[in-house]
Structure formats: C-alpha cells, structure tokens
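Lecture 7, part B: from sequences to assemblies.

Below are the input chains for today's worked example.
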Amino acid sequence: MLAVLVSIVSLGIVAQQCQAIVIYTGWERHALVGSDIRLSCSFFSWRWTSEEVTFSWTYRPDGSRDSISIFHYTGGEAYLDNKGPFKDRLEFVGNPGRRDGSILIKNLDFNDNGTFTCDAKNPPDIVGRPSSVRLLVFEKVPIQAGVITGAIIGVVLGLLVLVVVIYYLMRFLVARRVFSLNVSKHGKKKKEGSQQRQGPAPPADPSKVKAAASEKKKQESRKDKK
Amino acid sequence: MLVLGGIIFLHVSTIILLLVATIDNAWWVTDTVSTDLWGTWEFQSSEWHYFNLKTSPNEFHQSVQASAVLACIFSILALFVFVAQLFTLPKGQRFTFTGILQLISCLCVMIAASVYTAELHGEKGGYGHAYILAWISFVLTFLLALTYLILRKKSE
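Predicted structure of the full complex, as structure tokens:
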C-alpha cells in the first residue's frame, strides 16, 4: 500500500520534471506592404505564470544566417528595438499575465521578410524550444490558395445538382399531365379535347416530348405485358 | 455475375487510382524535390521538409487541383449511381446516368493532367508516379464510361 503511494507520488514528480514549456506562434504570416501585423506568441506551462516570466523575439532576415534580437520582456518591463531594423516600429501588445507575448510591427516593408522567433521562459519552467513564424510581405494580396479551387468545384457540383433536379422536375410535371389525361376510360373525350388544346401550343422542349413519348411507351409495354 | 463483379472491381480500383493520384505527392520529381498538386517536399540538410507551393498557387495550379478533386467525386458518384441503377433500372435499358458521370470524371482527369503538362514544367527531373497514375486512370475511366453506355441491363 505504502509502496503504491510512493510510486505514484514519485511518478508525479518525475512527470512534472519531464514537462517542458511549449511555445506557440503561427507558422506563416502574410501581409501587405505598408500595413501593420501582429505576431502572436503564447506558451503552455504546467507551472503558474510566474512574476519573472520573460518573452524575447529575434529576427532573421530571409537569406541571412544571423539573428538579431528585437524585443525582450522581463521583470514587468518591455524593451523594444531602438537601434535595429525595427526602430520606432515595434509595439508590445501582449499580456504577460495571460501568457501572451505578441508584438505589433507597423509600416511593413519588403526588407521585413524573414523569420521571427519567440522564446518564452516561465521560471522555474525554462526548458523549451523556441517557435518561429515566417513573415511574407506582398505588394498585393495574392489569391489565397484554394479559393479558385473551391469555386470551381462548387460551381460544377452545383450545376450537376441543378441539372438533375430540373430533369426530375420535368419528368414529374409531364407525368402529372399524362396522368390527368388518362384518368378513366370515359375520359377519352377529355383526352381528345385536351389534345386539341395542346395542338396549337408551341412544342416546348424536345426533352418534354421525349419524356412524354417514353412514358407512353412504358405504359404501352406494361399493357402489353399484362 | 462475373461481368458484374469484374466491372465493379474495375470501377473501385479506378477510384483508388484516382485518389492516389490526387493525394500522393509525386507529380514532378527531381533529386531533391517532390512536388504534387498541394505542396512541395524538399530535401534540405538531410531531412525532408514540406512547404506550401512557393509562387502562391496561381490559377493553373488551382484549376488542376479542382479538376482532380472533381474527377474523384464524379467517379465515386458514378459507383453509387451504378449500384442504385442495378436495382431501379427497367430491364433492357442502358446505364446512361452512370456512363455520363463516369465520362465527366474522365474529362476532368484529362483536363487536370493536360493543364499540368502544358503549364507546370520544372527545370529538370521527371514526372512522378502520381502523374502517371492520373493518365492511367484517364484511360480506365474512359473504358468504364464506354462500358456503361453500351451495357444493357439483363432482360428476361
């Protein structure tokens, strides 16, 4: 009994020590030249959010191998880039108490293409892997992947459904008219009358005529079988 | 019965080929790159990494995607309609609806593969197995469509 308790407790302690802090950013962000973009960063940790939680952002331009640090939050204070490429363009819009370390970059330029890495530490939980988000700056918003695809698929399927519905509707309507003609034997006079009425009417669709003809054939074949 | 089983088997295998061609990423293959309709696998620093299509998928790419998906959808629809028509069709009649759906599927595969061939060349390398499967399924869907349009339901 005691051995079981001890093993459970030790498992718990070991499990806690094995947990690491997990950092979440986006994967890729797209933005227009001259616009602002908010790069979000949050983390998951088994510990309570401590007072000494820190966030830091580093930037690596596309095609370069060096990173430069552009933002650091520690001890309740946010320190923004005041010498580097983002001078006067950064703003801290996160909420460290809520584990949010997002930054806002204003007035984007083509030189801002690159990878932004967020590293968060929640003492004593400091073991974790920084997460990166890639920023792509465009002149005009490209057609999002999948919009045209979805449109083509939707239109074709819609047309198919429409054609099927119209086809069955036509058959149903024609069937009703034929049905009302051959209601009973003494309705033969009715049949002739309505046929005369139908005479001068313009021949509607060849499909309607075909459908009517096939319906009549079917009825005849049924009568023959009987 | 044998004919029926054979046709259904052929149809199901055609659907499988179409799905593999659409989903598997090997339309254009080089030594380090393997591209398909949806993304690219690149071999960088001894590991394969998956990227979205780089030049933001232009209209041709998206139309190829749409045609390939539509071909799969129509072929699957044709299978269901065939099974339904097996029970509801009057004897001696042809499976026209099934044949038409399968023909549209064949058309879509042809559009997808042709547009891909015409527009989306890489620099070097060759066409991958998913591309070849697309053309094979084009032939199969065409044959199946002809079969459905010619076949008549057994009459007494």
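Note for the exam: Chain A touches chain B at residues 28, 142-143, 145-153, 156-157, 218 (CB under 8 Å). Keep this in mind when comparing with the next example.
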